[in-house]
Amino acid sequence: MTSTRWTPAPLLPASAVVHGAAVLGTLAVPAAWPWAVGALVANHALLAGAGLWPSSHLLGPNLTRLPADAAARREIALTIDDGPDPEVTPRVLDLLDAAHVKASFFCIGRIAEQHPVLCRAIVQRGHRVENHGFAHSNAFSLFGPGAMRRDIARAQATLSDITGQAPRFFRATAGLRNPFLDPVLHGLGLQLATWTRRAYDTRTGDPERVFQRLTQHLGPGDIVLMHDGHCARTPTGEPVILAVLPRLLQTLSERQLHPVTLQPTPPT
User: What pLDDT digit, counting tens, does each position of 20-49 carry?
Assistant: First the structure.
């Protein structure tokens, strides 16, 4: 748990002011209710849009790129979601080992419970296991603060117990969230992390398209998102991450980019 006080992002208190003004304005001038409703609808649309935009910082701190000093060292972060997968993850680990590369694996708590040995192997081989929620619910962005905290805290406890290493970062299902997430993460001592580059590799099984999406303009400081769990399959049935990762690692080497695990930023 963090001991520092949570400070809301500016949008949140501004939203509260809009709500208060709309209510008080309607009470003072009942005929103004259409304007009040319009303001509330616009405000909710803004909050919803911020939650549907994974790289948004409007709802609170969000690591979308590595810090400037890491970029200056030509570092990038490989992040791999939705595992551990008993078929795919061991082969991903072998490919990373062969290239002497480290990555951050955002693991689903309930899946980790089913494959604890594999989850431990990720850490034993020098990588990081991070928190991707316990249930990985598609409705996560609709959760209230209590349900959100229970899901994340359960995953945090599960992953910590299995690996002996507490996750430092959280990533929401599909990166979607709502205004309740930031105070929940603050209370649990976690940082939100999304990405700079994604390839939609849970839906796209064409290795060339996935590779191009990941590498076009890829540069220092980027955070790359791939999937070992729920990954799409190539036309020959191969998990697309396994078809793309060797070529991606070779490209990183050619561009003198150095993959690293995510590192927490100091609280402000």
Answer: 655 665 666 677 667 556 766 786 688 788
Across-strand partners of 222?
65
Contacts of 217 (CB under 8 A, 6+ apart): none
Under a CB-based contact definition with an 8 Å cutoff, are residues 189 and 2 in contact? yes
DSSP state of 140: G
Task: Identify the CATH assignment for 68-260 out of 3.20.20.370, 3.10.20.880, 1.10.10.10, 1.25.10.10.
Answer: 3.20.20.370
Q: Tokens 């490989």 label which residue?
A: 78
SS3 percent helix, strand, coil of the chain, rounded to 5, is 50, 15, 40
What letter represents residue 258's amino acid?
H
Q: 107: which strand partners?
A: 83, 131
